[in-house]
From TrEMBL, chain A:
GO CC terms: plasma membrane
Record GO terms (molecular function): branched-chain amino acid transmembrane transporter activity
Pfam families: BPD_transp_2 (PF02653)
Domain of life: Bacteria
InterPro entries, A to Z: ABC_transp_permease (IPR001851), LivM-like (IPR043428)
Name recorded for this polypeptide: Branched-chain amino acid transport system permease protein
Alphabetical keyword list: Cell membrane, Membrane, Transmembrane, Transmembrane helix
Transmembrane regions listed in the UniProt entry: 47-67, 72-90, 96-116, 123-141, 186-205, 236-259, 271-302, 323-342
CDD domains named among the record's database cross-references: TM_PBP1_LivM_like (cd06581)
Source organism (scientific name): Rhodocyclus tenuis (Rhodospirillum tenue)
Compartments where located: Cell membrane
From TrEMBL, chain B:
UniProtKB keywords: Amino-acid transport, Cell inner membrane, Cell membrane, Membrane, Transmembrane, Transmembrane helix, Transport
Domain of life: Bacteria
Transport as UniProt keyword: yes
InterPro entries the UniProt entry points to: ABC_transp_permease, BCAA_transport_permease
GO biological process assignments: D-alanine transmembrane transport; L-alanine transport; L-isoleucine import across plasma membrane
Protein name in the entry: Branched-chain amino acid transport system permease protein
Transport listed as a keyword: yes
Gene Ontology annotations for the cellular component aspect, listed alphabetically: plasma membrane
Topological type in the membrane: Multi-pass membrane protein
Protein's cellular compartments: Cell membrane
């Protein structure tokens, strides 16, 4: 990405680019909303949530090199935190500002709980344990409706409070000086702000002492230890940080959907987020963002395209659109990885390694 | 006591199936260091093909056991071909790629196979026709069906056969050499590409048999059945020590026993707080516990810290 390197030296161009991207991001919901309708704006809102998730998982998988296949559990923890503390389930209605940090903290604690017993495991052993952990959380959410009803079981929790900012609910159109801001747009700005905050934090982390320690562990744990890195604490920190981002995204998800159920936190979701990270370009923040956007939008494109295109070409629907959509998605995963094994937008370091032949 | 014996029998049957599938995972892992995420789908395809052939033969008047054997005989080559194709398309081009790349293509293959199956066989559950003779045996006041006896026997035979193949034949020696060090094996004249292909083919034939067994035992097959089965079998392979054949067998049987005993007794153990729907939690919990104390599985060799 030489052009981006150039931006780093040319201050004026950098400012211009930033302003341009800023304006684009600011008007995007209006463009998308009027051009493609509210369905697509909703999908974009989800894409932002997935970007947060992918960036969180990127810390664990991309930076620290710990293969986590149960990441969605932290999303679930965040979502259920919000759902339990702001819904008729227990009659609690705490504000978002109390729940989101709490959700992040609890998810972080769960991250450490997962990380602590698995410190000695590497590679694929870690993958299966994290996967099992994710399933355990989901099964508990699914069954904790008896003997004491906590999570309401498979029915999930509905009627969750919408996110309120300064007493203004984001679920209804907002009146701003005579100008109405629809709910989806409001959520877009909130999610964008938090996604940008997470991007900022991860960029700062990447170049920090901690970030370099993560990369060192990824590259060679023994060498990292020999260099005086406390690998135990640094690995736990990676789990906790990644998990807390997932917790925040989960809380937002619950408020946005007004409904959570264990179904949203299946293993397939973990796999999806992992695909975003790896397909986008592990360890590279712009790549991971790209992966998050693509893998949210692509299945939806197929969903909306699979039926009508068949109708237009064959005059009738020959193949089940739902199956066809996932089929195309699977093929896309394979093709992209075959042609770009290091991801769509790999970090400079990984690209160099890859060219050098080191796997 | 009879419940205990019954759960042991159920566990052994389930465990034999897990063990067969786990062998497929562990063979591929042993040779390539890769989780073949699509292996569960191969099991599903085996079950579906066998079922389709059996349903076609239903009116033919052949004895039930013969129909079942023809179904199985049809499923094995289809699965072998699938396994071969998976390796060629999704894994071979990525032999030297970063480690997670083949994992993603494996997930892609898994999604593709699942949805192809859904297009071919639909979303419905398919019932296994009652063609197999239903003989029940009494063992210590518990019952074991003829099908279950056959499953345990066939699985045991296949495991013995595989062990002999790997330990006693030229092909087996080539496989072990490739697992040890592919490039040195190649220098010694082993056609490693062929060995890797064969590993996938052998693993897939075990998967076909396992798929057939699952659908015969539970009288049902479904396009989605491969996923959870593959997950359990992979867990079993890791429990035993992935890459190790004996480990996969042990892990499979053990996981089957843990699951069925867990399902039977978890309520008593926790004073009724957790019911039998926590059986998966139990299985994963045992897995985590085992790995905490033996990070490379029950019989896995201690992997040398890579310098």
């Amino acid at each position: 990405m030489m052009r981006f390197e150039a931006l780093r030296h040319d201050k004026r161009a950098a400012i211009a680019a930033t302003v341009l991207i800023g304006i684009l991001l600011a008007v995007a919901p209006f463009l998308i909303g009027s051009a493609a309708g509210s369905t697509w704006l909703r999908i974009v809102d989800f894409a932002l949530l997935y970007i947060m998730l992918a960036l969180g998982l990127n810390i664990v998988v991309g930076f620290a090199g710990l293969l986590d296949m149960g990441y969605i559990a932290f999303y679930a923890v965040g979502a259920y935190m919000y759902a339990l503390l702001a819904s008729p389930q227990f009659g609690l209605h705490l504000p978002m500002w109390a729940i989101l940090p709490a959700g992040a903290a609890v998810a972080g604690i769960f991250g450490v709980l997962l990380g602590a017993p698995t410190l000695r495991l590497r590679g694929d052993y870690l993958a299966i344990v994290t996967l099992g952990f994710g399933e355990i959380i989901r099964i508990f959410l699914n069954n904790l409706n008896a003997p004491v009803n906590i999570t309401n079981g498979p029915q999930g929790i509905s009627g969750i409070d919408p996110i309120r900012i300064g007493g203004v609910s984001l679920s209804k159109p907002i009146d701003l000086f005579g100008f109405t801001l629809p709910s989806l747009h409001a959520y877009y700005y909130l999610f964008l702000a938090l996604a940008l905050a997470i991007v900022f934090v991860t960029i700062r982390l990447e170049n920090s002492r901690i970030g370099r320690a993560w990369v060192a562990i990824r590259e060679d744990e023994i060498a990292a230890k020999a260099c005086g890195i406390n690998t135990r604490n640094i690995k736990l920190l990676a789990f906790a940080m990644g998990a807390s981002f997932g917790g925040v995204a989960g809380g937002l998800f619950a408020g946005f959907q007004a409904f959570v159920s264990p179904e949203s936190f299946s293993l397939m979701e973990s796999v999806m987020v992992l695909c975003m990270v790896v397909l986008g370009g592990m360890g590279n923040i712009p790549g991971v963002i790209l992966g998050g956007i693509l893998l949210t939008i692509l299945p939806e494109l197929f969903r909306h395209g699979a039926g009508p295109v068949q109708q237009a070409v064959f005059g009738k629907i020959l193949l089940d659109p739902e199956a066809l959509r996932m089929l195309l998605f699977g093929l896309a995963l394979i093709v992209v990885m075959l042609y770009r094994p290091a991801g769509l937008w790999p970090s400079t370091r990984r690209r160099r390694e890859f060219k050098g032949g080191a796997a | 006591m009879d419940i205990f014996i019954q759960q042991i029998i159920n566990g052994l049957v389930l465990g034999s199936i897990y063990a067969l599938v786990a062998l497929g995972y562990t063979m591929v892992y042993g040779i390539m260091g890769l989780i073949n995420f699509a292996h569960g789908e191969v099991v599903m395809i085996g079950a579906m093909v066998a079922l389709t052939v059996i349903n076609l033969l239903l009116g033919s008047g052949l004895p039930g056991v013969v129909m079942a054997l023809i179904g199985l005989a049809a499923a094995v080559p289809v699965c072998m071909a699938t396994g071969f194709a998976i390796e060629r398309i999704a894994y071979r081009p990525l032999r030297n790629a970063p480690k997670l790349a083949p994992l993603i293509t494996a997930i892609g293959v898994s999604i593709v196979l699942q949805n192809v199956a859904m297009l071919v066989w639909g979303r419905n559950y398919h019932a296994f026709p009652p063609i197999l003779p239903s003989v029940d045996f009494e063992v210590f006041e518990a019952t074991i069906t003829g099908v279950q006896v056959a499953i345990i026997a066939i699985a045991a035979l296949m495991m013995i056969g595989l062990t002999l193949l790997v330990q006693r034949t030229r092909l087996g020696r080539a496989m072990r050499a490739t697992a040890e060090n592919p490039s040195i094996a190649q220098l010694m004249g082993v056609d490693t590409n062929r060995i890797i292909s064969l590993t996938f083919v052998i693993g897939s034939s075990l998967a076909a048999v396992a798929g057939f067994m699952v659908s015969a035992n539970y009288s049902i097959a479904h396009y989605y059945m491969g996923f959870i089965l593959g997950l359990k079998a992979f867990t079993a392979a890791v429990l035993g020590g992935i890459g190790n054949l004996a480990g996969a067998m042990l892990g499979g049987i053990l996981l089957g026993l843990i699951e069925s005993l867990g399902a039977g007794y978890i309520g008593d153990l926790t004073g009724g707080f957790l019911g039998s729907h926590y059986q998966d939690v139990f299985a994963f919990f045992v897995l985590i516990l085992v790995l905490v104390f033996r990070p490379s599985g029950l019989v896995g060799e201690k992997v040398a810290e890579r310098a």
